[in-house]
Amino acid sequence: MFTHHLFKPNSIIKNYVINHLLQHPQSLFTPKRSCNCYTQTPSQEDTIIAELILKNNSKTQLVEHCRRTQWSPDLVDRVLKRLWNHGPKAIEFFKFIDRHPSYAHSGSSFDHVIDICGRLRDYKTMWDLVKEMCKRRIGPTPKTFAIVIERFISAGKSDRAVKTFLAMHEYGCPQDLCSFNTLLDLLCKSKRVEMAYGFFKVFRRRFRADTVSYNVIANGWCLIKKTSKALEVLEEMVERGLEPTVSTYNILLKGFFQASQIKQAWDFFLQMKKRGCEIDVVTYTTVIHGFGVAGEIDKAKKIFNEMIKQGCLPTVPTYNALIGVLCKKDDVENAIVVFEEMVRKGYVPNTTTYNVIIRGLCHRGEMDRALDFMGRMKDDECEPNVQTYNIVIRYFCDTGEIEKALEVFENMCNGECLPNLDTYNVLISAMFVRKKADDLLVAGRLLLEMVERGFTPREFTFNRILNGLLVTGNQGFAKEILRVQSQYGKLPRKFKL
DNA sequence: GTAGGGTTAG
């Protein structure tokens, strides 16, 4: 059956937690209204600057404004965040401020821009910035390397990621257990588990692999649904004298659910309880979500009630799990009941909570109510994010209400949220369904806009739009797109406007 | 940003 020595009753920890909860029920779990007073007060200077940067026509105004601005690392970081989905402009802004006579960039701003360069696959600029950090003696830090490595991995260049890790010390940043674990985690999260495990086996002695290292690898195997491999790794961990933690158990538990091994998941959960392992709010949330996804709503609800009875208060993610599965496998109306209940209890729904509800409503075709919830988000100081907009835009497109999708897109651009690659892909595809010449013009404009913002449209998208424009007699515009495409082909990652 | 629990369509 289950690996027996994985289960060592951890009664000391368990008793400590229970006692703590009984003595200070408020301290750990009482949801608090978030206080925005200190994050918001230094005016919305970042918004103003980001707007000036995005409006091409007011260059002199921008320069003038920047000269008068009292720059701080925090302000620069916030502006960079606002320009997240407008990579080229963000880099330009960073370089512009770098010439400021009395302001010097912080390591954190460097990290942001390095991340953006990595996303744009402009590796030359990325490494130049890393070297510049060396020169200025503000880095690079382990965090900088985590960023670089993650960008290589997500671009499918795992080998370069590993090489980067091995070269860290040449930049004055020695590898340690933390950075080792980070690399393993990044490889695992991108499903390169075999590679991570191979690397782990070679270096585990040198870096003195710890519980975290083993958990990371086990989680990797779970992500690709190989729970038996995960169990093997954990056996090995125990043999080496490392104690499993509550995270270890939670990783396996989630792994069983993800691999649709519902029976094993349930048995494992029972064993955890029986053997006195620590059961925390993450454990309960995992079980609620797991059963819900498997369509066992009643069981999910039962566990939710059980955790409360056990004195383990749900957190916002717990509610998100329950609300999410109610939307998907039960009824949005029931999900909304739970939503209202959580609000009544004083929890503050976060963006995910709203997105889950909004998706549920869209799925049922209740677009008006979905938009109501979006309005409610704003009232709740919980601004809709790209995903929120993408959900609504996608559903408007799917139901053929292209005008409304475009209207939402406009609102998004006028607000403080920039579209991402998904937004453009969804909208551009929608421009082909009505077979209208005007729609193709919009598609063309969207294409140019996304290129300008540093996103990479697929060859297919280019060709589709070109064909469309030629068929509808827009030779002129087609030529313009063709010009962009050819420049784009020659200068893949650094297309300049 | 050293591990585990909420959003991705069919």
Automatic annotation (TrEMBL):
Protein name, per record: Pentatricopeptide repeat-containing protein
One Pfam assignment: PPR_2
UniProt keywords, alphabetically: Repeat
UniProt organism field: Kingdonia uniflora
Chain positions of PPR repeats: 210-244, 245-279, 280-314, 315-349, 350-384, 385-419, 420-457
Membrane-crossing residue ranges in chain numbering: none
Protein family: Belongs to the PPR family. P subfamily.
UniProt KW Nucleotidyltransferase keyword: no
